[in-house]
Amino acid sequence: MTQLAFVFPGQGSQYVGMLNDFLEKYSIARQTFQEASHILGYDLLRLVNQGPCKHLHYTWKTQPAILTSSIAIYRIWQHEGGRAPILMAGHSLGEYSALVCAGAIEFTDAIKLVEFRGRIMQELTKTRIGAMHAIIGLDRTTIEKICKKTKENQIVSIANFNSQDQFVIAGDKEAVYRASNACKSLGAYVKHLMVGVPSHCMLMKSAAKQLENRLQKIKFMKPSISIINNVDVKIEDDEYAIRRALTRQMYSSVRWLEIIEYISKQGITILLEIGPGKILSRLNKRISKNLTSISINDTNSLMMALDKHK
Questions:
Q1: How far apart, in whole angstroms, are the C-alpha atoms of residue 26 and residue 225?
Q2: pLDDT tens across 162-181, in order?
Q3: What is the pLDDT of residue 1?
Q4: Where is the active site (predicted)?
Q5: How many structural domains are present in the chain?
């Protein structure tokens, strides 16, 4: 039998109208959003369905929206008799989705936690402006050297190791632009990312301390399905280790390339992306030719996956 792994997207995969297909057909999807709305104190379902787009892109609203979307799809998968994966991983915020689906944290706790995470991340941008740029076409060593050379007493570093030739840099806005221009001069394609905060760099260190304090109040259980974390590319079962990894994730690089390589080495050939969009599936295809990566983001893709992996 073919073994499955599930991956969950992070910030950047949101858009107005995501999950409309599921919301029309499945009451479990609507109930999941209603549950989140009750916790948040505003109509998350309406925001996801109707926008406005500007509000959906506020970090403290983006994060609950993506988390809830992933949980809704996962619950539908279970409801329809979909087979359980043997491994899970999430890209940045997606790690929280994986923890909920593996029973390591309650959905109600996770919703409040990611909203708080989004707020403290956004708060930092009031005093220090940051940016995130995708760099495509250069290798890791070259980009690291450029960041070191162009930072000029500011912060700029690789935030995401997305594939062999796609990286994201983050830090102070001026330093990010200097590094990006240097990358362009070497032939790289550079894309400014429409995100509200410069995640996964040392600018987030003070926010990480606040998150650490909040995490101490959350009950974590042993995951029922193994989860590969972002910062160490390790599977952790211990409550303390999970909390510590989530804290460090705020200011540490997302090692997605290594995570997918790890999954491939376990003999897994099918990856299902559980959440809005297709960002991870596109990345995964760039990383490994041995993996079939499928996005479950509407009823058609769900039914096609269920036909093969029920």
A1: 25
A2: 999 999 999 999 999 999 99
A3: 62
A4: 92, 200
A5: 2
Spatial distance between the Cα atoms of 155 and 153, rounded to a whole number of angstroms: 7
Instruction: State the maximum Cα–Cα separation within the chain, in Å, rounded to a whole number.
Output: 55
Q: What is residue 194's predicted lDDT score, i.e. its pLDDT?
A: 77
Please state the pTM of the whole predicted model: 0.96
In the numeric block, the tokens 């996801």 are attached to 48
CATH number for 136 = 3.30.70.250
Residue environment code for 267-278, b if the CB has 16+ CB neighbours within 10 A, otherwise e: ebebbbbbbbbb
Question: Would you call 37 a catalytic residue per the annotation?
Answer: no
The domain containing residue 186 runs over which residues?
130-195
Q: Given the structure tokens 């997305």, which residue do they identify?
A: 162
Q: Examine the residue annotation and report whether 200 is marked as an active-site residue of this protein.
A: yes
Q: Confidence band (pLDDT; 50, 70, 90) for 131?
A: very high
Say if residue 118 is in the same domain as residue 227.
yes
Token duo for residue 285:
């295809």
Q: From the candidates 37, 70, 92, 163, give the one annotated as an active-site residue.
A: 92
Burial class from Cβ neighbours inside 10 Å (0-12, 13-18, 19+) for residue 309 reads middle
The domain boundary residue, chosen from 151, 168, 195? 195
Task: Give dist(CA 230, CA 294) in Å, integer.
Answer: 21
Catalytic residue among 57, 91, 133, 200: 200
Task: Report the C-alpha gap between 15 and 20 in whole angstroms.
Answer: 11
